[in-house]
Amino acid sequence: MPDGLEHRGRERALALLAERFGPRFSRAPAVRAQHGRGEAWHPAQPPDAVVWCARTEEVAAVVTVCAEHRVPVVPFGAGTSLEGQLCCVDGGVSVDLASMNRVLEINAADLDVAVEAGVTRTQLNSDLRDQGLFFPIDPGADATLGGMAATRASGTNAVRYGTMRDNVLGVTAVMPDGRVARFGGRARKSAAGYDLTRLLVGSEGTLGVVTELRLQVHGIPEAIAAAVCGFASLEGAVTTAIETVQAGVPVARVELLDELQMRACIAFSELEGYAAAPTLFFEFHGTPAAVAEQAATVGGLAAANGGGAFAWATLAEERNRLWRARHDVYYAALALRPGAQAIATDVCVPISTLAEVVSATRRDIAASGLIAPVVGHVGDGNFHLQLLVDPADPDEMRRAEALHAAMVDRALAVGGTCTGEHGVGIGKLAKVAKEHPTAIPYWRALKRALDPDGIMNPGKIFAAD
Amino acid sequence: MPDGLEHRGRERALALLAERFGPRFSRAPAVRAQHGRGEAWHPAQPPDAVVWCARTEEVAAVVTVCAEHRVPVVPFGAGTSLEGQLCCVDGGVSVDLASMNRVLEINAADLDVAVEAGVTRTQLNSDLRDQGLFFPIDPGADATLGGMAATRASGTNAVRYGTMRDNVLGVTAVMPDGRVARFGGRARKSAAGYDLTRLLVGSEGTLGVVTELRLQVHGIPEAIAAAVCGFASLEGAVTTAIETVQAGVPVARVELLDELQMRACIAFSELEGYAAAPTLFFEFHGTPAAVAEQAATVGGLAAANGGGAFAWATLAEERNRLWRARHDVYYAALALRPGAQAIATDVCVPISTLAEVVSATRRDIAASGLIAPVVGHVGDGNFHLQLLVDPADPDEMRRAEALHAAMVDRALAVGGTCTGEHGVGIGKLAKVAKEHPTAIPYWRALKRALDPDGIMNPGKIFAAD
């Protein structure tokens, strides 16, 4: 809560912004509430005001005013983050970048593009399609590319194409002092100094506001085939995914749904011909011959691990239906317990430990009495839990937190991470502190160096000193 | 030059280190001279002393003493860097890590390893081979993995396997305050906070001493085939490389040697059956069917661009001979002008501009009257120039510098970088300043935050304030 002096400074800053942005400035409670949360269960913590920016220079103007008056700045894209990254723990100004939605350049010959931060991944892919290109990072939600960079998003295609870490060539950012800086460039590789592109990717708006991005894109493969395979056991499914990666098969997607999640999806997405069994969804990219060879190899591994026959989806329409169902797992799971909220969490572990870690987590779920389907980008050793809870029931919330903590502890014990792709936000502060005890003092030092007044998305990633 | 007070502090620090390290501490002039330079033309600037460390804790002890007495610390691996990264511009202590050469863990099932910083890439590959694994980053020199991380090394395999940026999962580093910190981890991906692993990779020892690394490794492909193809024109060779990448062929290596470099290699490495023509060296990795398919696609592209028949090397022995010749280009080029020194430099550009940039550079070479063969990792848009000069001839040095500057300016004009893989060191301070004018103030801020007294490899990457 701002004290008197600080309060007057904040009001002064808001007045300046109101004057400059006119109808693109709002303090309406509904607008503020909508900008104070992501898609997760974390209760909204609204900003004091929302400003819609259309250009990098406008973001710079907002940050300059906020820096002068020590007012928090929280960037807002599509509002789909999952760890409370958008909760304005100390109010401030939410900078809405959704109208910065221009695709600035498409260099088909170089497989790179320049976009404003508010472009969503589906918008970019729709612009790329007729040039035979696509942007592979797919976290499920139709997030903005700026938000995806800020949270180091990954998703279903990461096993082959990497994460935002690997596909952002450079960024333009408004830094905490209000100046505009450009990091990285168009070259595929560079040894020219400190990699601040990678420092900003995953920094969740705490070091600056990413306003433009240079991204690597990829040619749409000549052949794409998707297949679904049910297994007699969860272990058989996970082992198949592990062996696929270990064999070096360049699979484009390998997704695990446990039997509870499959049951939910069959009901929610009206899937026909599938059983409520542990299931892998695969996608193969390449030349027709390469796709056939990959599929044959993986089919052999699946059969040896208790998998059934592959159900193929080679037409784009069937594939889209299948992946739509995969993307809707969140809503499908929610439908398992109407009225419940979902605590969505994820960990990522060395793949050789995945079967053991998933199985132990499932035993914990059974013991907890909670409903919590498991979904995973298992080719990366990454899996998700959706804990369906009633936030008004303290005992249930305690059991959910104990289950969550055990899952993270188990991941850390095998050398994994407390968050494969959702980020830290306010949801995983304690967990990341456990994972990176010797690193965090240096994170803090960097934060203080770039943002001495701590105005950029305060309270995220690590607790204040 | 240290002033009186500083001089006494430095002598006190050296005395403490001499006492602690005994025979592993040296002030012998020959030892100091050898530790004051890399493989490039930059004249040696020796440290005041050299300390050989065997463990992370010993490096921490050295840095602690040096931090207390404000003495520069310059990490030393194999001494193969090319931009003066090892020149001790203010003396100080060279920390030799060559005896930190233990491979600590090989996790074949997870395709990751842990190594000490002094392990060289050939040592690691020799340890990995009987497990069917390899580490792909190959800058030519048998550098240490710590040095390769510090300079963000890449090389011939980067077009398929990425650079050190992509293959370092985590590091243990002694930070400028003497404390030991661990960044990253074993998970394939993580959204857990700031990516200090990527900040240390490429920081050239200016932010800390990397003492241990967690690396991603790869399965040795079932089939490997190398081919050499001569072209009627340089443009035809470059265009073939460009089209190969644009077609999405997952080629493992595609290396360009211009006719002068080929002439040098044929003489130096006694290659038989090759012509002194613009030439591409390819390597294909995959299943036998995938390798055959890739080779057929690339063969078609080469033929359409004036390329001759592929000369194949499928046996490991023939392949090694070929890549040995490729790695020896530096010495082969030096033999073109006995007694000359080589100024080795590289730039990296968007691949669609590569043919034009290389051709313009070759016109500049012709106009300069200098001897300067061109070699390139052209699949990444990265190429090298070796300027053979007599450093005692000021006019020649001026022409060499003008040629170098024009090459960099041309790369920057098309959105490229002044150094694809050699780093900045002291050799490219002005050029990187031109490339990253808005970024450097933030590099400085980070440097000051982590190393307020500026003891870690001073004078590198950017000029002091």
Helix and strand topology:
The structure is a homodimer of 465-residue chains.
Chain A: H1 4-21, E1 25-26, H2 29-34, E2 49-52, H3 56-69, E3 73-76, E4 93-96, E5 103-107, E6 112-116, H4 121-129, E7 133-134, H5 145-150, H6 158-161, H7 164-167, E8 168-174, E9 180-184, H8 196-200, E10 209-216, E11 218-219, E12 223-230, H9 234-246, E13 253-257, H10 259-268, E14 279-286, H11 288-304, E15 311-313, H12 316-327, H13 329-334, E16 341-348, H14 354-368, E17 374-377, E18 382-389, H15 394-413, H16 429-435, H17 440-450
Parallel strand pairs in A: 2-4, 3-4
Antiparallel strand pairs in A: 1-2, 5-6, 6-10, 7-11, 8-9, 8-10, 12-14, 12-15, 13-14, 13-17, 16-18, 17-18
Helix pairs in contact in A: 1-3, 9-11, 9-14, 14-15
Verbal overview:
2 copies of one chain form a homodimer. With 465 residues, the first copy, chain A, is an alpha+beta fold. Chain A has 4 domains: 95 residues, 2-Layer Sandwich (Uridine Diphospho-n-acetylenolpyruvylglucosamine Reductase, domain 2); 117 residues, Uridine Diphospho-n-acetylenolpyruvylglucosamine Reductase, domain 3, CATH 3.30.465.10; 108 residues, Alpha-Beta Plaits (2-Layer Sandwich), CATH 3.30.70.2190; 86 residues, Alpha-Beta Plaits (2-Layer Sandwich), CATH 3.30.70.2740. Chain A contains 17 helices and 18 strands. In chain A, the strands form 4 sheets. Chain A has a 7-stranded antiparallel sheet, with helices on both faces. In chain A, helix 14 runs antiparallel to helix 15. Chain A starts with a helix and ends in a 15-residue tail after the last helix. The mean pLDDT of chain A is 96. At the A-B interface, strand 9, helix 8, strand 11, helix 9 and helix 11 of A face strand 9, helix 8, strand 11, helix 9 and helix 11 of B.
